[in-house]
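Contributing new records

If you add data, match the layout below exactly. Sequence lines come first and carry their own label; structure lines follow with theirs. Keep one chain per record. Anything else will be rejected by the validation script.
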Amino acid sequence: MSIFGKQHGTLVPVHADNAKSKDWLVLLEAATIVGQQRDKLRVALTTQERKLVKKRRLFGKPQYFVVIDGYDPRIHALYFCPQLYKNENGSLVPLTGPEIGQLMAQALEGGAIEKSPWYEPAEGTPKDLVIKAAPNMELDSLVVDATNPRANKPAPLRAVGTSEKDK
């Protein structure tokens, strides 16, 4: 490969702290599942491996990008998540990437916008994000409710308010 070789995939800008971390990269997809019984969000990709590109400007800070094949800002949202654990019989067991992605999709499903999956050829990239965070939604603390586990799906999540965190 040469220095001027073409990158395969789309460059998605990320913060420098996220570029250097070993957190899970979770790519969620919205508005691609049709029908009555459906989830608003689908987990498109979960991985800890990533290809980074660092671009520098003269006398400026470097900018970091993650290379993702097939990324489309119309339907995709990118998140980073640290390794999560579940308590099984008193021991901590790490969750797998797809389990972490399902938990995030369930937690963010309320903020997914409803729109048609098609667009006109002259239409540009939308200014609105695929997932809008609610003003009261805090992603630093989520509680997993394991009261009624579903088959092949993780337990639902709920956001913890600041008044509940202090207890």
